[in-house]
Amino acid sequence: MIMNQFNSICNVINQCKKTILKIEQDFISAPNGIINVNENSDSPFLKGYHQSPTKLPYNAYKDTLNNTLSPILTNLNSPVLNGSNCTNNNTSGATPTNGLSVKLNINNNKKSQIYILVNIALGNINNCHDCIIVLGPCVGLIEISNCSKVTLISITKGIKIKSSNNISLFICSNEKPIISSDCHNIKLAPYNTHYPNLDTQIATSKLLVDLENNQWNNPSIFKLFSPLNSPLLQSNSPTTTTTTTTTTSDLLQIPPNNLLNVDDTNNIHEETTEIYSILDPEEFFPFVVPFLIKGKTKSNPCELPNEYSTCLANKSNSVHALHKINSSNYKRSIN
């Protein structure tokens, strides 16, 4: 049962102009495997530096070298994080890395950057505005509601979005994204980042990252989200006497009469263009996770469509050419 397949909980609530980072070690050391991020519970790596991590002063990194709680010092091959070597000394609620699965709630946040770089069972993002959210692989459903100006980057089984506007989704989704017709300006794009232990997390999640199984640009559009049609509510209804199992497929099921036909050439198709669009390859750039975490992943593990990989290669070649010109000009200036 998907709803019970988690052993840790993370709540990120009421953050404003903050940078939040959570990795496996944070959950292993958390009491009962529960993390509640509030005004005073930021990751120690970022304590005192709440602005964008790309602007952290050098001393912020230097000062953490002697901080044993800092993620920069976490060795992902250590017995603490390696499930095969783990002993019974771990008395916290969370299980080792290869068994960690987090139920994630991100609510009521503004102008913040949130990095939850762990395996996720279910994710709920509600009432967030002007935020960047980077998540580890999600084996269930990510649901976004009542949000605006949010960028989400994640590999996931499925994603559902409702009552939101100006959302950018850089995703690898094994199921079709589900978008409510009350959404506006949802931008869909391929997954565009990596961090050092991402490959290990993908292997644990068993999610597929090849192009054939990536439905990032093939959404289904709801006319509306009706509570009466929700499999989740039906399974938990107090009037229901039989026990039902809620799976990710149930959560992503669309009643046929509640689906807009995006292939129509009539006004319905014009309506969907106001709801979502596909990011132009020329506007596609990689996103850098600005933290020093040990691991072996060196590049984006998700296969990109040809037009996006070609644009990235062209941009990279242009940058290298510019570097050569600058280097040549510098050498001439000092001679």
Automatic annotation (TrEMBL):
Top-level division of the source organism's lineage: Eukaryota
Annotated ranges, domain C-CAP/cofactor C-like: 71-211
Signal peptide: none
GO biological process: maintenance of Golgi location
Family: Belongs to the TBCC family.
Protein name, entry field: C-CAP/cofactor C-like domain-containing protein
